[in-house]
Specification:
By secondary structure, the chain is α+β, with helices and mostly antiparallel strands. The chain has helices at residues 3-16, 35-52, 83-96, 120-136, and strands at 28-29, 63-70, 73-79, 108-110, 116-118.
């Protein structure tokens, strides 16, 4: 992921869901493999709120406080909503817990320093990069 991709993703969320991102929030801190999950979640939440509030405001507008990775899982912090929204968030967090944070492929929570949810490919790639760094810097055991 690069800064341009991140900026484009955040701008897209702000454009598609202006009410959800209308308040100051702590940003989005997770890999691009989870971005489709976040975007789908935001779409489902806003659709639910708009549908329920067609005649009168019965569901408080969701506003995002922070979206991040923590202990290998997606955390979606927000205000507003109802029990249905809470269920949507739980489902998305569960979905992310089984998806590679880097590419979105099926993944497994991996221990070892920083807990990450990764597919086998990204785990192997990470281990190879660590071994290469150790070799180049005389840190081999």
């Amino acid at each position: 992921m690069n800064d341009k991709q991140y900026t484009e993703f955040v701008d897209r969320l702000h454009t598609r869901f202006p009410a959800m991102f209308s308040e100051k929030y702590g940003g989005i801190a997770c890999g691009l493999g989870w971005w489709p999950i976040i975007e789908a979640l935001c779409g489902q939440i806003q659709h639910h709120i708009d549908w329920k509030n067609k005649k009168s405001a019965v569901v408080p507008q969701v506003t995002v406080e922070q979206i991040k990775e923590k202990f290998g899982g997606l955390r979606f912090y927000y205000q507003g909503g109802d029990d249905y929204v809470s269920g949507l968030v739980s489902m998305a967090e569960s979905w992310a817990g089984h998806s590679c944070e880097e590419c979105g492929a099926p993944g497994t929570r991996r221990e070892g320093g920083w807990v990450r949810t990764q597919c086998d490919f990204h785990l192997i790639e990470k281990e190879a990069l660590k071994a290469q760094y150790a070799k180049e810097n005389g840190l081999e055991l």
